[in-house]
Design goal:
335 residues, alpha/beta, 8-stranded mixed β-sheet, 8 strands, 51% helix
């Protein structure tokens, strides 16, 4: 049995707390919001973000960050990506050298273009930072629906240790050394999911969504490999797997926000309606900046940015993607 502190009591942190508890571990769940802590202590359920998922009484719920970081074997950082840096800075004074921190959020910081693990390592240099990602909506993990993810760490032994911590009959975990690829796949698929949702909102069909998913992973892989990630990662769980589920699922807040934009909502109106952090909106500008920095063509990412931040109509963005210059699908293959 391991001592595990989960930092962030939103839907994902709550679902992972239950998963880890059911795996036989001692779990503490932390939130910076005292009202959220009181609600979870009283109701043993996150009524707004994860209704119907009951937290057993022996999961400790607290807002005391220092106590959460006093002696855990593993700290799971589950706050939304815009709060990764500020939460890491709060954690830093209490983290001992060699503490394992597993980031489970997805995003790229807009102003620095850093991945979340890079941010955590910068703010908490004494920690060993790892990543868990993949096609894993909290609503289904909380209900024990079979799910598969991937864990990445700088050392094989650490990845295998975490694989054992998280793995269960309903939560299968693979390992990989490609931390960068795992994080880029998890962050950039949210931007593509906004486009897929917008296509749904416009009334387009399965053909359109399949095209967005296929060409979307091509864009993500082009950028990722240029940055030093492995192409194989983007064919895996944190690449095409996560992209498929986020573009198609009714649970996806990115797809829902995109759907509303396709229906004519502004970006702000869509985010207000979703009532949860829409990670793709925060990652879109960063993705565009990375494409420019590494000189990688990413037309879907570019059009999403125009819709989000330049008031371009979603239908016009789709048309401009369709009438681009003729291309070869697989330029690396000889005739």
């Amino acid at each position: 049995m391991a001592k595990i502190s989960v930092l962030g009591a939103g839907s994902w942190g709550t679902a992972l707390s239950l998963l880890l508890h059911n795996n036989g571990h001692s779990v503490r769940l932390w939130s910076a919001l005292k009202d959220e802590v009181e609600m979870l202590r009283t109701k043993r359920e996150h009524e707004s973000k994860l209704p119907g998922v009951h937290l057993p009484e022996d999961i400790e719920i607290t807002w005391d960050l220092e106590s959460c970081l006093k002696d855990p074997d593993v700290a799971v950082l589950a706050v939304p990506s815009p709060f990764t840096r500020s939460t890491s800075a709060q954690m830093a004074p209490y983290v001992k050298k060699g503490q394992i921190i597993v980031n489970v959020a997805k995003g790229v910081e807009e102003n620095t273009l850093m991945t979340l693990s890079e941010i955590i390592s910068q703010e908490i240099p004494q920690a060993d930072v790892c990543v868990l990602s993949g096609p894993s909506h909290a609503e289904e993990v909380g209900r024990g629906i079979p799910t598969t993810c991937v864990v990445s760490a700088s050392e094989r032994s650490m990845a295998e240790y975490l694989q054992g911590i998280f793995m269960s009959p309903v939560f299968r975990v693979y390992t990989t050394p490609d931390i960068l690829g795992v994080e880029l796949g998890g962050a950039l698929k949210n931007v593509i999911a906004l486009a897929a949702g917008a296509a749904d909102g416009l009334g387009y069909g399965d053909n359109t969504k399949a095209a967005l998913i296929t060409r979307g992973i091509a864009e993500i892989a082009r950028l990722g490999t240029k940055m030093g990630a492995r192409i194989e990662t983007f064919y895996g769980l944190s690449g095409i797997g996560d992209l498929i589920v986020t573009c198609a699922s009714v649970h996806s807040r990115n797809r829902k926000a995109g759907y509303l934009i396709g229906k004519g909502y502004t970006m702000k109106e869509a985010m207000d309606e979703v009532k949860m952090v829409v990670e793709g909106v925060y990652s879109a500008k960063a993705a565009k900046s990375l494409a420019e920095k590494f000189q990688v063509e990413m037309p879907i990412i570019e059009e999403v940015n125009k819709v989000l931040f330049e008031d371009k109509k979603a239908a016009d963005a789709v048309m401009d993607l369709m009438i681009r210059d003729k291309k070869v699908e697989t330029p690396m293959l000889p005739w």
